[in-house]
Structures are given as structure tokens and as C-alpha cells.
Design brief:
It is a single chain. With 428 residues, the protein is of the alpha/beta class. The protein has a 7-stranded mixed beta sheet with strand order 5-4-13-14-15-12-16, sandwiched between helices. A 6-stranded mixed beta sheet has the order 7-2-1-11-18-17. A 3-stranded antiparallel beta sheet has the order 8-9-10. β4 and β5 form a beta hairpin. The two termini are 38 Å apart. GO terms for molecular function: FAD binding; oxidoreductase activity. It comes from Filobasidium floriforme. Pfam families: FAD_binding_3.
Length: 428
């Protein structure tokens, strides 16, 4: 009898555990390495939509996802005087608002997928562990040295450890990875909630291409974020150096320097950085790979195609990509090289990834005005658009269910049979 497929996954975010769940259902053994000592509870709002909801339903996870909802009730823009305008309320079962009924913090969603996969036969999560180096990647197997010094062999290695994966850099040539830059930075952190805070996603456009937002969470705190498009090469250099340094103090210093006097609740947000347990600062850059696999190594999730938060589809792509990769691997014959599955995964999913990533580099400038005249024009346009799309007649015309299919799932009889065999209850 052939041995089950032995899979090593680097990264316990969204894509890795989703893949592990499906592969375990088909009889594979999956080891997931995560360099952090435990799942990080941090992270800002994300959501799932379209066909990714179908996959989550197949996994029986929708009830848990709903339970972790961030409590966000809608989206509104903030005028220079601090008052809200252009509000769009969340409507259950609808995609007509930027706020989804499936809003969830990234850490909470990662926990949902981890909990679902961790006790399945054949799944082994190892925290505080990573791949130190790939010793061998040939037609026979993948041999790796782990961070604790052990050497182990697998049938394939899945790189799912994020946009700036070191392991991807070790396994793929630089020519295989394209970085698309948007001259945009973002920082996130958690703050104390105040009585005056509401349950909307509040979006403020400051002058000088500076933006701020506040969003509710289900834990009695509030999630702050800033976005910034450096207006000069000199300022851009400062932010690049701060980002590359990994020095939280330096990052906070350049942020405070360049956001002083921007208005609205800037003083409060900047004052909350020093006590934030999860301050995170990075450039908005898209990853595009010309090839997702190399012999027995394959990339998944942000490691393969980070679409940026601008698309709102990073989580959706991670879930769908994991499903497609699992489905193609499940079709392999015992002992067959995974190359055929990798190519089929690429063929089936790359067109949708490419479509999702087709986000013009000039779009961020539209919502990051430099002058008061441009801000006035932008906000008048936003107010008009919101009035139009929230009109009852227009809503009936443009509205569609949040789970409307945006990607045609390939048919995988092996995955469907695995679900039936394990009698997973499907929640919707």
C-alpha cells in the first residue's frame, strides 16, 4: 500500500491551515511550521466574499466566522470638521456596502482555520519552528533542515509564510518575483475605545496625501490605521528606511513627524502608538510571480500573489488558492510527482489572481488628496456616489448576495467524497 502524501507547509496564517484541512481529509499527512511561538491575536479587519464563502461553507466554518464578527455596522467618511458624511450601512447577505457581514479580524480568522485543522488525523502544527534551509529539492523528495537542527524529508513543500517570505527567496530566482509598488504605506495598531467612538469604519482624508481610519472590534478596543503617500523622494526614503529597519521606535517617529497637525483625531491616534501591543508598519506592494512552483516546492497565498489590501481580496484568494491546490494534489496517483498538480493549480487559478491584481497604480492618489481643493472635489464626488448607490432603486439594481460566485470552482470529486466520508456538517 502506498504511503500517504507527506506535505510540509511553512506558515500558519490563512492559506496554510486551509490547505492542511483539505489535504488531511484526503488522507495526506501535513506538518505546518509557524515561526511564532503561538498564533498571533493581532491583525486588522479582513473579510471573505464571493466563492471563498462557498469553500468556508463546505468546511462547515461559517457559524464560527459569524461569531467572530467585528461588530462593524457600516462605513462613513469624515469631513474636515470631524462630522461624518456619505454613510453606507451594512446589509446582511448583501455586497452593497464596504462593510461586510463577514468582517473579522485576521487573527480571529486564522484561529478559526487552525482550530478546524489541528485535531484532524495527519495534521501536526509545530509553533516556534521554521525551515532553516532546503537541502534538496529533486524529482524524488524535498529534504529540509529545520530551525531546531533536525533534517526531515517530504514529498512537497508549500511556502505560505507571507509576502516577504525568506524561504521563497531561497527557492526561487529573483527574476521570478516582481514587486509592484504603489508609493503607499500603512500602519495599524489597537487603541483604547472611547465613549464617543461608534461602530462604523470611519475614514478621514487629510491633506498632504495622509489618511486615517478607526474601526470597531469585538473586544472593547478599537483598531486604528494610517495610510500615507510620501510626497517627495526624501520623505519616501525616510519611510523606506524605517520600514526596512524593523525598528518600531523609528517607524513611530517618522509617522508622528509626518502626521502632526493632519486634523480629526490625529493627536489621539499618534498618542496611542506607544501603548499599542501590535503596531505594524509596511509599504503597500504587490507580489507577482512568473512561476509558483519549482520541482517539489510551491508557493501559496501572499507568498505567491500578495494582492495588497487595496483589492480587499487577499483572504479570499488565500482560501480559494488552498482549495484549488488541495484539489489538484488529491487527483495525483500514489507516488506521482506533484509537478502535474502544480501546473494544473497554476492553470486553474492564475487567471483569477491576475484579474484580482489588476489594480491601477494611480487609484490610491484619488483617495489621498494633496491639496484642499482636491480634497473638496474628492469628497463632493464621494458624497454623490454614496447618495447614488444607496438610493433604494439603485440598490435593487446593483445589489447581489455577498456569496455571489466570482470564481468558478473546479470540480474535485476527491474533495467532495472526502467531505461526505467525514460527515462534516455544512453551515450556511
Amino acid at each position: 500500500m502506498a504511503s500517504p502524501l507527506r506535505v510540509l507547509v511553512s506558515g500558519a496564517g490563512i492559506a496554510g491551515p486551509t490547505l492542511a484541512w483539505w489535504l488531511a481529509k484526503t488522507g495526506a499527512t501535513v506538518t505546518i511550521l509557524e515561526k511564532t511561538p503561538q498564533l498571533l491575536p493581532h491583525g486588522q479587519n479582513i473579510d471573505i466574499h464571493g466563492t471563498a464563502i462557498t469553500v468556508a461553507k463546505k468546511m462547515g466554518l461559517m457559524d464560527e466566522i459569524r461569531k467572530k464578527n467585528t461588530t462593524e455596522k457600516g462605513t462613513q467618511f469624515i469631513a474636515p470638521d470631524g462630522k461624518g458624511f456619505g454613510r453606507m450601512g451594512m446589509k446582511k447577505g448583501s455586497s452593497a456596502s464596504p462593510t461586510s457581514e463577514y468582517e473579522i479580524l485576521r487573527g480571529d480568522l486564522a484561529k478559526v482555520f487552525h482550530t478546524a485543522a489541528k485535531d484532524l488525523p495527519g495534521v501536526d502544527f509545530k509553533f516556534g519552528m521554521s525551515v532553516k534551509r532546503v537541502i534538496k529539492n529533486d524529482n524524488k523528495e524535498v529534504e529540509v533542515e529545520l530551525s531546531d537542527g533536525r533534517v526531515e524529508k517530504f514529498d512537497l513543500l508549500v511556502i505560505a509564510d507571507g509576502q516577504w517570505s525568506r524561504l521563497r527567496k531561497d527557492c526561487f530566482p529573483a527574476s521570478a518575483v516582481e514587486v509592484v509598488d504603489y508609493n503607499l504605506f500603512v500602519a495599524y495598531w489597537t487603541m483604547k475605545r472611547e465613549e464617543t467612538d461608534n461602530d462604523d469604519w470611519n475614514i478621514y482624508q487629510g491633506l498632504g496625501q495622509r489618511g486615517m481610519t478607526l474601526r470597531p472590534d469585538p473586544y472593547g478596543t478599537i483598531r486604528a490605521a494610517i495610510t500615507f503617500m510620501p510626497p517627495t523622494p526624501e520623505i519616501r526614503k525616510d519611510w523606506d528606511e524605517a520600514s526596512r529597519s524593523g525598528d518600531k521606535t523609528l517607524q513611530a517617529d517618522v509617522l508622528k513627524r509626518d502626521f502632526e497637525g493632519v486634523g480629526w483625531q490625529a493627536e489621539r491616534l499618534l498618542g496611542g502608538i506607544s501603548t499599542a501591543p501590535d503596531f505594524y508598519f509596511h509599504p503597500i506592494q504587490q507580489i507577482r510571480m512568473s512561476q509558483w512552483s519549482s520541482n517539489r516546492v510551491v508557493c501559496l497565498g501572499d507568498s505567491a500573489w500578495a494582492p495588497t489590501p487595496l483589492t480587499g481580496s487577499g483572504t479570499t484568494l488565500a482560501i480559494l488558492g488552498a482549495y484549488v491546490l488541495a484539489g489538484e494534489l488529491a487527483k495525483l496517483s500514489p507516488g506521482e510527482h506533484p509537478g502535474r498538480a502544480f501546473q494544473a493549480y497554476d492553470d486553474a487559478f492564475r487567471p483569477f489572481v491576475k484579474e484580482t491584481q489588476s489594480f491601477p497604480v494611480w487609484v490610491p492618489r484619488l483617495v489621498h488628496p494633496k491639496t484642499w481643493r482636491r480634497r473638496w472635489f474628492t469628497q463632493m464626488a464621494l458624497a454623490g456616489v454614496v447618495r447614488f448607490v444607496t438610493h433604494p432603486w439603485v440598490i435593487r439594481w446593483i445589489d447581489q448576495p455577498a456569496d455571489t460566485e466570482d470564481y468558478k470552482l473546479p470540480e474535485y470529486a476527491e474533495l467532495d467524497e472526502a467531505i461526505k466520508a467525514s460527515e462534516v456538517p455544512v453551515s450556511g
